[in-house]
Structure formats: C-alpha cells, structure tokens
Amino acid sequence: MKKIQMVDLKGQYSDIKDEVNNSIQDVIETTTFINGPKVHEFQKNLETYLNVKHVIPCANGTDALQIAMMGLGLKPGDEVITADFTFAATVEVIALLQLTPVLVDVNPDDFNINIEALERAITSKTKAIVPVHLFGQCAHMEAIMKIAEKHNLFVIEDNAQAIGAHYTYKDGSKAKAGTIGHVGATSFFPSKNLGCYGDGGAIFTNDDALAHRIRGIVNHGMYERYHHDVVGVNSRLDSIQAAVLDIKLQRLDAYNAARKAAADKYDQAFKGIKNIEIPFRNGTEDSHVFHQYTLQVKHMDRDALVKHLNENDIPCGVYYPIPLHRQKAYLDERYKETDFKVTNQLVKEVISLPMHTELEDDQIEYITSTIINFING
Ligand SMILES: *Cc1c(COP(=O)(O)O)cnc(C)c1O
Q: Which GO terms describe its molecular function (predicted)?
C-alpha cells in the first residue's frame, strides 16, 4: 500500500506532468507573467464551465471575498451575516473592511448556515449574507435568495470549497455553486478541488456593472491606465498559475468524480457502524464535491480516534476545532453560547479523512477498518 496522504498533489501532477510543464514553459518563454494570454484563456474557459457571465481572476480566495464586498460598496458598520462554522478567511475580510460580522449557527446535517438563525440575525443594519458551501456542498441557496430579496440584501457565496458542485432548485433546475448569489468567490489554493501551484482565486458574477467595478478594484482602482477612480488593491492571478489551472479545469469534473467515488466507498464501509455519522448529501448525485469527507463521531472521544489514526500512519484533520464566535479576534458580546449549539457540538465531533483524487481501494480499506476496529475496540 502506498503511504496515505491527506491530499496527494504529487500523484495528481504525475498524470499531467508533460502538459503542465510545457504550459508553464510557454509562459516563461513569452515572459507574459502578469495578465498574459493564459489568464484570459482560463478566465473564458471558467466562465463557460460555470455558465456565468463574468469571472475575474485574483490573487487568492481571501482577496476574492474582500474584493466582492468592496465591489458591492459595503460601508463600515454594515452588518454581514455568515456561518460560525467555517474557515476564518470568511469573517476576517468582513472585519478588515470594518463591516460588522454577525455569526450564526449551522445545520447539524450539512454543516451549512442555518436558515432560521440567519433570519433571526437580520437587523436594519444588515446588508449582506455570506453563505459558505462547506466541505463541497451548497448552502440552502433558494431560501437564502428569498430572504435576501425580502430584506434587500446582497448574497456573496464563499465557494472556496465547492467549485464544480451543483445546486438543485425545488423545480429540479440546477446551477453551479458560486453563480447563484449576486457574487461568488473562490480559491485556487493547491489543496482545493481546483488548485494551482501557489495562490490564486477568482470572483464570479452575472452582473455587468458589478463585474466592471471589480475589474477596476483588482487593479488599483484603475479603469483607464493611471486614472484611479476608486481605492483598489493589487490582486492578480499569475499567468503561470493560470496555465496550471486551465489544464486542471479540463479535468475538474473527473477530479470531483474521483473524490465522490472515494466518498461512496467510505460511506459503504461505515454503513451501520455505531457512533459514526457519514456526511449528509442533499440527495442529488452532483450536489457534493467532497472537498472534505467529514464524519461526525458520536458519544466517543474524537481526539483519541485522531491520535489512534496518526499512530497508524493515517493523516486526518479537524475542520474546525474552534468555532469562530469563540476566536479572540471575533469575540462579540452579542453572542450567547446557546445561540451556537450546533457548532459547539460539531467542533467536538468532526473528523475529516484523507480525501483527494488519487485515493486507492487498499488505502480506503485500511483507513475504514482501522477506524471500525478502534470503535468496536
Ligand atoms: C480556503 C478558503 C478560503 C480562502 O482561500 P485562500 O485562497 O486560502 O485565501 C476562504 N473561505 C473558505 C471557506 C476556504 O476554505
């Protein structure tokens, strides 16, 4: 059995090595390092893939979220509601822009923002909602868009973990994650479902005026060279990263299918095992792209399981061990522990298993049997 990796980027690279190397070499030979033709090509291909009017590439996923909020013209003091159970980047950019983050609890099944908690958190100062499509599955976008419309709020999708996932509306129609709200943001961090070989990110929108504002913001607020109309930032996707991404985008559906196949095998092995709750799927085949495969372990010592796995050379992760509302940087006296019952439970019960495009059957068998033997003690 090959050594088990949490994420196997090397194995994935070996399959596309020549293509990637040639494409990177091309960028170097033409010295079009910034905003070269590769960036434009990738942008166009991603627009087609997502079926969205505008993709604006940028330097990373955190920037993508920040720039989306800048583009919407959110002002200091505006309240922005997001999930308590997510990576800190989501709330970090809200705070950085001097907006007021308002954290709310999540669902116990799909770990995404809870609709009732979201509605309760709306005040006259609320201006935006940031649903995070956690671990690869969409938040309840139809309900969120309805609430947003009713209260005149912007919706910014944090799609860093769910690129390629589909959201299915009640009427059966589908849209790609990140293209449903007013604006979507994603990350191409190497371990994401579509990852480059460094940092990268992108913003998506179907709104022409917003896309125009954002294109200026990513480039120092310039719409015409050396005319700075708004305060912007410097956030660009390198041509070398775009070269890698354009090759991997062609394989994204296959990569996500490989993740799902691994998830199916995990599910199968854990069926009927007491103390283990397998990841919830909302029922449609293409809804979950398994950025993480996250179990909930009930009525047992999760950390003892983590230790046991590590002792048996099985890497695993706890995403996330501390809810955002208890992080020093984001403490707020308005929060009551009783408002975060689900997150407070999840941080004690979640464990994410190795998940990538190169997992092999014998590895999955070893991982699942090690866990099951530990539980059956
Ligand atoms: C990775 C991630 C980000 C940030 O992306 P970077 O490219 O690392 O800046 C934001 N939100 C979520 C949910 C993420 O998983």
A: transaminase activity
Ligand 1, atom 7: closest residue by C-alpha: 61
CATH 3.20.20.60 fits 252-376, yes or no: no
Strands 79-83, 154-158: parallel, antiparallel or unpaired by DSSP?
A: unpaired
Which residues lie with the beta carbon below 6 Å from any ligand 1 atom? 60-62, 86-87, 89-90, 132, 158, 160-161, 187, 189, 199, 201
Predicted confidence at residue 377, as pLDDT, reads: 85
Tokens of 269: 């092995």
Task: State the distance from the centre of ligand 1 to the C-alpha of 87, rounded, in angstroms.
Answer: 7
Burial of 175 (0-12, 13-18, 19+ CB in 10 A): middle
Short-list 168, 155, 158, CA closest to 133: 158
Closest CA to 262 of 190, 351, 371, 362: 362
**252 exposed, middle or buried (CB, 10 Å; 0-12, 13-18, 19+)?**
middle
| Structure-block tokens of residue 348 | 């004690």
Which phi and psi angles does 49 have, rounded to 5°?
-60, -45
Domain positions in the chain: 9-105+112-249, 252-376
Compute, in angstroms, the gap from residue 227 CA to the centroid of ligand 1: 31
Report the predicted TM-score, pTM, of the whole model to 2 decimal places: 0.97
Which is the closest atom of ligand 1 to the Cα of 60?
7
CATH architecture of 9-105+112-249: 3-Layer(aba) Sandwich (3.40)
Tell me, in angstroms, the distance from the centre of ligand 1 to residue 61's CA: 5
Gap between the Cα atoms of 238 and 199, Å rounded = 9
Q: Are strands 222-224 and 79-83 parallel, antiparallel or unpaired?
A: unpaired
CA nearest ligand 1 atom 2, residue: 160
Q: Give pLDDT tens digits for 12-41.
A: 999 999 999 999 999 999 999 998 999 999
